[in-house]
Design brief:
The complex is a heterodimer of chains A (about 450) and B (about 400).
Chain A: H1 2-29, H2 36-40, H3 47-61, H4 67-78, E1 82-85, E2 91-95, H5 112-147, H6 152-166, H7 169-180, H8 197-200, E3 207-208, H9 211-234, H10 237-260, H11 266-283, H12 288-309, E4 314-316, H13 319-354, H14 357-364, H15 369-406, H16 412-421, H17 425-453
Antiparallel strand pairs in A: 1-2, 3-4
Chain B: H1 2-6, H2 15-24, H3 27-44, H4 46-49, E1 56-59, E2 62-64, H5 66-69, H6 73-90, H7 95-116, H8 126-134, E3 137-141, H9 184-220, H10 222-237, H11 240-251, H12 255-265, H13 268-281, H14 285-292, H15 297-305, H16 311-333, H17 344-349, E4 352-353, E5 356-357, H18 359-387, H19 389-397
Antiparallel strand pairs in B: 1-2, 1-3, 4-5
Classes of the chains: A mainly alpha (about 450), B mainly alpha (about 400).
């Protein structure tokens, strides 16, 4: 295993070279490519000052040299061993301990390493929140759909998932900002950013006015949640659906009332109908676990709303809540596409395994369907999901480019757009390098996870 | 020869006809194809559906056809492409030949059109409204949407964004107007061309590159395969969107540039598929026979092997068109798309501006993007089932 890992890590090096080479060639071969002139172009300067600035950039980055030399110099800078660079830009002695140096960003005038250290954690936070969410929800939906192949849930979820997969990320982002964050409609969420300025100075956890308020809040959440969970867990299908529809209608009416007052109008009727249809359908889902999870999430939110409406006084929302509140819309917009794709994959993989010979053998020896599914089929069905996890990370990174610029989150995706728009050579190359590294690491992790999940696979 | 007679008589339908039949039996595929067909019609007839130039008018007692006089080379090529597609569809012969014939004829017409068609260089949209107001123009027949995509309604002053059916100055904008005052419905209709064109041509370029590289990898294997796979890995490990952004930022923006760029950044998947198919095929007898009879390499690769390995490629291409359209709208949305020309992504970009939400710019263009991508995904899904031998067998047994 260790030798395999080592070999893979070494194979990553030429690929990383290739990635940066491709991006460098694109930048260098562009008309008006990378010259000191293009860097100082925008500034309104005296000819002498312009000349001095150009000379300075040329000396610092070697921009007056041929592209191949520039690339080699850049490689030398980022590699941990190589020639030292003197202050005037010329190369010094060969050194084994000079350490990698990603250079200075043209635009920010700051070391690229600092910029990346600031931005990368934010993008990783978004992605690391999305990945578990995607896997949990898609496995739940996929298992349920595969269990009753051709049933109502299977057909409905199949169409819904394909539709969800086709919704462009920016449309989802724009609609969610427009309806749930802008001033014209419901202002439930912030329009952008990751944290409010005030929240930075606040306590970490929410701070309520008194102990009684805390108890009241917890009590309300517990009562509402357990009522909902009990309802969907125990009730038969028909009362469940009716209950869900009634609750949905009430919530829809409340949404319309928040927007245009309590006097009934067209929007009240439409939203109440939509709410009733949605919650009625969700309450009719045949899988108990899926229903309970949905009811639990709804109960938590409703409980907090009920408690606040009935007088629990919140002094400070707190840093944690504020951060989570800012992350809701971006994480949803980032994860729904991968979720739809993975849920379809889970279903297909489970169906294939349920029809396999070993599953038939297991049934023939008298095991019930649950045991066959969870003990025999499920683990085997995970293999394609693990394979896909490798491609999930790059697509999430690409998605965060859109999400971050839409929600004005200062992550690496937004940095990437700024970098290419301002032709910031060092930054573009470094962002390419980092995202390529993350992608390749994702491939490697997927291969390792594959070996763990499937004992037949070994890399000896 | 007697062995051939022993094979049970079977209606000999070409494989392509069988797949097409299996595809059209599915409702989802029919819906998807219907939407794409509708889009193609709208794109081809765009100048007659949404145009500020009247179709017919009598100016100072003289009959005129301004909309026809202002047709440019792109309009003519689109119309010719549609007519030729109809001809190719009705004609007989192998599907591939008909497609190739359609493509060659359309390309020829496009080149001719670019060389010969020359609409008036100066376009003044306001003059018709002025003539009509002054009583000089009579019997004016206008297009259903009497606004061009680039008609910013300057004669109505600084109009800017208006919600649908705001009804100012007696104007009717079904989908409202955008930032510069142009009619959103008209811009969406003309933008259908970019969406369709980019989808087809970018995927075509990616298919050609992917097929050549993947075919060489699969046929030769060994060192060629090793180098090729590294190349595939490189292009897979760079996030496509980022590579696109870099290309566009450094090379400038035009529709044709974007087609090429999206094409050369998305071939790696096709190369993988073709490689896998060719690795499987090259061991088979008919390929060995072709090699043994001394056929040239291009003939072995593309005449003998490719038609047998085309199935997974078709499915991937269908999904590929969807992602090419998404790539274009994403670029336009991020403000790196085509300048001035209409595009769905660029309209969507204006939906959220400085904390005001213009819902008509999100719902209509966004809905068009969604429906188009959904249609291609539906077709791709149905195509995958149609070419999959497992579902075919299950379908026959059941």
């Amino acid at each position: 295993m260790l030798s395999y890992l080592l070999r893979r890590a070494l194979l990553m090096v030429p690929t990383l070279f290739g990635i940066t080479l491709v991006v460098f060639v694109v930048m260098a071969s562009a008309p008006g490519g990378l010259t000191a002139q293009s860097l100082v172009e925008g500034n309104n300067l005296e000819p002498e000052a312009r000349k001095a600035l150009e000379d300075y950039y040329n000396r610092l980055y070697g921009l007056d040299q041929p592209a191949s030399v520039q690339y080699l110099r850049w490689l030398n800078n980022i590699s941990p061993v190589g020639f030292e660079r003197r202050a005037d830009g010329s190369l010094g002695d060969f050194s084994l301990t000079k350490g990698p140096d990603l250079g200075l960003s043209f635009r920010y005038g700051r070391p690229v390493t600092d910029l990346l250290a600031e931005r990368l954690p934010i993008t990783l936070l978004l992605n690391l929140l999305s990945i578990p969410l995607i896997y949990a929800v898609s496995i739940a939906i996929g298992v349920q759909a595969a269990r009753e192949r051709g049933g109502r849930f299977d057909v409905a979820s199949n169409v819904a998932l394909l539709g969800l997969w086709s919704v462009p990320t920016m449309l989802a982002g724009v609609l969610s900002i427009g309806f749930f964050a802008s001033e014209q409609y419901w202002r439930w969420f912030p329009t952008g950013g990751l944290v409010r300025r005030e929240a930075v100075d606040q306590t970490f956890l929410p701070w309520l006015a008194s102990g009684a308020d805390v108890l009241w809040m917890l009590g309300a959440v517990a009562v509402v949640t357990s009522l909902l969970v009990w309802g969907v867990a125990v009730a038969a299908r028909r009362p469940r659906r009716v209950g869900g529809a009634v609750l949905g209608a009430v919530l829809g009416y409340a949404m319309a009332a928040e927007l245009s007052g309590p006097v009934p109008g067209v929007s009240h009727g439409m939203l109440a109908l939509a709410g009733a249809a949605l919650l009625g359908a969700l309450a009719g889902i045949p899988g108990k676990a899926l229903r309970i999870a949905l009811a639990g999430a709804l109960g938590l939110v409703l409980g907090v709303i009920v408690a606040r409406a009935s007088g629990a006084e919140v002094v400070q929302a707190g840093y944690l809540f504020d951060r989570a509140w800012h992350l809701v819309l971006p994480v949803i917009a980032l994860s729904y596409g991968g979720l739809a794709f993975l849920a379809k994959l889970t279903r297909a993989s489970l169906l294939e395994n349920l029809a396999a010979d070993y599953a038939r053998t297991a049934r023939a020896k008298g095991l019930d369907e649950e045991t066959v599914l969870w003990r025999h089929v499920f683990r085997n069905s995970l293999l394609p999901l693990i394979t896909v996890s490798a491609t999930l990370l790059p697509s999430l990174l690409a998605g965060s480019v859109i999400i971050e610029s839409l929600f004005s989150i200062d992550g690496m995706g937004k940095l990437a757009i700024e970098a290419v728009q301002t032709r910031d050579r060092e930054l573009v190359l470094s962002v390419t390098l980092i995202s390529g590294l993350l992608t390749l690491a994702g491939y490697l992790l997927a291969d390792i996870a594959y070996a763990i999940a499937d004992p037949r696979v070994s890399y000896e | 020869m007697s062995e051939r007679a022993a094979v049970p008589a079977r209606p000999s339908r070409p494989w392509s006809a069988e797949v097409a039949g299996a595809l059209l039996r599915r409702t989802s595929a029919r819906l998807g194809l219907a939407w794409i067909g509708l889009l193609a019609l709208v794109a081809a007839f765009a100048p007659f559906i949404a145009n500020s130039h009247p179709l017919y008018m009598v100016l100072d007692g003289e009959a005129r056809f301004p909309a026809f006089a202002h047709l440019d080379a792109a309009d003519v090529s689109w119309l010719a492409g549609l007519v030729l597609a109809f001809v190719a569809w009705r004609s007989r012969g192998p599907a591939f030949l008909r497609f190739a014939g359609w493509f060659a004829a359309t390309a020829l017409v496009a080149v001719l059109a670019w060389a010969t068609v020359s609409p008036p260089p100066l376009v003044i949209y306001e003059q018709y409204r002025e003539w009509e107001a002054a009583g000089r123009a009579e019997r004016v027949v206008r297009a259903p949407i009497p606004y061009s995509a680039k008609d910013y309604l300057r004669d109505h002053g600084d109009t800017g964004m208006e919600p649908p059916l705001a009804g100012r100055d007696g104007r009717t904008h079904w989908f409202g107007t955008e930032d510069n005052g142009a009619d959103v419905a008209s811009r969406m209709i003309h933008a259908a061309r970019i969406a369709l064109g980019i989808g087809f041509i970018a995927t075509g370029i990616a298919l050609v590159i992917g097929t050549i590289i993947g075919g060489l990898m699969g046929y030769f294997s060994g060192v060629v395969d090793m180098i090729g796979m590294r190349l595939v890995e490189i292009f897979e490990a760079i996030p496509t969107l980022f590579l696109l952004l870099t290309f566009v930022a450094f090379f400038g923006r035009s529709v044709y540039m974007m087609m090429v760029i999206i094409g050369i950044t998305s071939w790696s998947g096709y190369a993988r598929y073709v490689r896998a198919e060719f690795l499987r095929l090259r061991e088979q007898d008919f390929v060995q026979a072709a090699v043994a009879s001394g056929l040239p390499l291009t003939s072995i690769l593309f005449r003998h092997m490719l038609p047998n390995g085309v199935a997974p490629l078709l499915v991937a291409a269908s999904f590929g068109v969807a992602s090419a359209i998404l790539a274009e709208t994403t670029l336009s949305f991020l403000g790196l798309g085509v300048v001035d020309d209409p595009s769905w992504g660029q309209l969507l970009n204006q939906a959220v501006q400085s904390s005001t939400f213009n819902w008509w710019l999100a719902v209509f263009p966004g809905g068009a993007i969604f429906l188009t991508v959904f249609a291609y995904n539906l077709v791709g899904e149905a195509l995958r089932d149609a070419v999959d031998p497992h579902t075919q067998r299950a379908g026959r047994a059941g």
